[in-house]
């Protein structure tokens, strides 16, 4: 069976151009030969793309051959070739250079018309595909994936994809406003006049660690902390955010923009759940007058569980003391569960003193004492953020950042730490976090459509044509 595929282009000036694109000779009696093969499809798409881009570039240049003021034809100085990288191949585009008209006051004597069209030599959709997939899997796998399913150029490599991802992230970073210590707006009277807000917003923030590219002075492997969060709005889509605390200069502004995209008003309830760390807690300070800061119950119980394990070890050496210690820990947990830190702190202080007075041969007693002292400091520093967890739980309100723990695993663990053995610089990790969080919460494509409005138009046109066909 002989199959001929032709391309027909109707130009804006009325000219019609057609050409045979590809001829295939395919049998009809073999299952593996039914339909286009992947290689045939990539070859076909590459040929069509080259013809379409060439026709569009020629149409654009044809509008510049005459002076726009006096309509005098412009003389050609020469031509060069622009290589335009698209998802369907690298397309060479002939770019003429023209002499300016005598009536043109511009400083340069010549110009290239296509310079105004090809401001970037990478198609926006190619940039989007590279950024999306490199945010999900390694740069090398991204290259292999794109080369497997699309007729991309042979020169595409991991370094190119990484540079393009950094460029996209840096462009998004440049759109952030200036950092501010306080983001509370308006007076109480002005806030009282605001319309009724949507449902409450819950924001959870936690940290994780990734491998650093540079070792320490002694040549040992080091890590640095990244901060990850998830904002859950009752009536809007969930959003992720991430940053490298020791690198980012605008952490509060970044969170503010996430909340603004979710429609935050100054009279809207918002709850921040954190692990109580200073760096994590400070990012949410003075974000809204209606904000409630809650210490994550999970981190409290996690510390109490560790102390409970030490108590079980102590029982092998001093059963009576261990039993009393266990009773005190249970009492402390009950006070904290009901938000009664005023009663919990004296109990913690008493237990810490009791542990200092214990004479035992338990080998981990020093670690037990240290853990108790650290727990005392932890609760003291975060006492003002300890609510009545029992009451919140009864009313179905969140008391734990368990959803953020999964977010850390999703955002950081699966791309930075677990199976990916890469080492990261702080700028590289920070830029990757920006594109990865947007990819995961579905806001990367809308951002590209904001930068390149034609992408949204193409998407709408395609949907309309499918609806009509159906």
From TrEMBL:
Superkingdom: Bacteria
Listed name of the protein: ISKra4 family transposase
